[in-house]
Amino acid sequence: MGRADEVRARAKRYAERAEAMRADHGSVDAVYVIADRDSEVGGGLMAGALAYRIFIWLLPFSLVVVAGIGIAASTSESPEGAAKSLGLHGVVASSVSQAARGSSRWYALLIGVPILLWATRSLLKALVVVHRLVWGDLRRTVPKPTLGATLLFLAMLVGYFAILELARAVGSWTDSITLRLLVAFLGLVPWWLVLSMRLPHRGVAWSGLVPGAILMAVGLELLSSIGIFLIAPRVESSQRAYGALGLAAALLFGLYLVSRLVVASAVVNVTVWERRSAA
Asked: How far is 45 from 26, CA to CA, in rounded Å?
């Protein structure tokens, strides 16, 4: 109890010191504003809903990839190996690869394509709602999840995995982790910047969306490393101990972190833009 009281007292002193620094340091005040805005818009709740949408999207996407291209179905990787080679998406791909083998592959492809389009449209609608709430952009001219917008969004999602694969290939060819991270960062910043410009943002210029794109790229790289070194080694043990529930829990936890990052990037963008406008 004495140690716990000491920790609480120390945390209280740090909080009071940080609160006192808000008037003299704009960066400290910005952190408080970002935290307050995230709490006001319900960032945790929105991230949870978004993680569920991404999970639903990953299932038909993995089914189509496995059935149509045979990336995971043609290998005998364990869930841990699949997670290391394809990231969190590999966990889902390995779980549906058995269903996509043999004669069922054509049926899986025929069923998976329309479901994938529906899930992509649903995920796009969720992203639009999240950015409307964060930005307070309630105009009627917000992007509509039309068929064209859905296909373009699907292409951009595929582009994300292409960027990661390119970075992995460069890292394997040069045997340099630093170069792999640099290639992924340089690819993810413009990727998220382009995607953010097609989401509600009060008509802010592209330069106003750069802070969120940088945060998103750095965060995705960090989460990818966490997934490879921390989550992936425990996927197989979780599946062995808890079955499909352990696999789904590990995947949903990773997707929640990604969704939290999506909300945070929008909150950072709107906070930085408002402070610049006020200045």
From this structure: 28
